[in-house]
Every structure is written in C-alpha cells, then in structure tokens.
C-alpha cells in the first residue's frame, strides 16, 4: 500500500491531496461521533453526476493495496490510485457559511463543475 501519511501536503510528484485544517477538524469530529478511532475518510471519484464525474465520501477502517493515505492533524484521508489521478493537486476543505456546511473539493483538474459542487468534468 503506497502510504504518503507524512504531512497532508506530502508531494508524490503532482499526485498530492491536501487536507485543510477545517476538513481535518470536521473529519475528527465525525469519527469521534462514530466511536471508532480507526476510521479514515475515503474520498473517491466515480463516473456520474451532472458533469461526468462525482465525488464520494465514506468512512473506512481499511486501506487497500492501491490506496494512498494522506494525514493531517492525526486524521487520515484515503483515496484509491485511480481517483488520485483525477484528484491530483486538489484540496479537501470543509466550509460553513450562511448557505450551509459541506466538504468541498478544490480541484485544479476540473474543467467544469455543477452548481452543487458534487460533480465535475475533467
């Protein structure tokens, strides 16, 4: 299993996923409420959504052989090798504003995105 669990901005060429402080705090909060400190946030990209690709979020306690693990403030975010191709250089953030609160992906590979921010075109 390739493990880039150094800083969340550890470089592996251009294949990096940055985790913001805000996202790390929110993931830590959610994991605490799940009651399983072994959990990691799994971020995936799959075909679908209104723009061609969509982001997926789930908790997972296992990293697979083709996974890359990024760590920030003790919180681990895991993504598979294929998803990392589409996420390279992205930042996972958690934003709270008057419209609501949500995880956001700031993806430099996206050529277009939908209004809800959950899907994109590459």
Question: How are the elements arranged and paired?
Answer:
Elements (H helix, E strand, L loop, with lengths): L16 E3 L1 H14 L5 E9 L3 E9 L6 E6 L2 E6 H7 L2 E8 L2 E7 L5 E2 L5 E3 L1
Parallel strand pairs: 1-6, 2-5
Antiparallel strand pairs: 2-3, 3-9, 4-5, 6-7, 8-9
Task: Write up what this structure looks like.
This protein has 2 helices and 9 strands; from the N terminus they run βαββββαββββ. It is an alpha+beta fold and 122 residues long. The chain has a single domain (18-106), classed as Hypothetical Protein Aq_1857, Chain: A. The strands form 2 sheets. Strands 4-5-2-3-9-8 form a 6-stranded mixed β-sheet. It has a 3-stranded mixed β-sheet with strand order 1-6-7. The longest helix has 14 residues, at 21-34. Residues 17-118 form the Core domain. Keywords: Iron, Metal-binding. This is Core domain-containing protein.
Helix fraction by DSSP (H/I, runs of at least 4):
10-25%
Biggest sheet: strands, sense, closure? Answer: 6 strands, mixed
N→C terminal distance: 26 Å
> What's the CATH first level?
Mainly Beta
Secondary structure class reads: alpha+beta
Give the C-alpha Rg: 14 Å
Rough shape? globular
Please identify the oligomeric state: single chain
Architecture in CATH?
Sandwich
Q: Which H/E pattern describes the elements? A: EHEEEEHEEEE
Query: How many discrete domains?
Result: 1
Total beta-strand segments = 9
CATH homologous group name: HesB-like domain
Mean of pLDDT: 84
With strands numbered from the N-terminus, the spatial order across the biggest sheet is 4-5-2-3-9-8
The poorly predicted ranges are 1-13
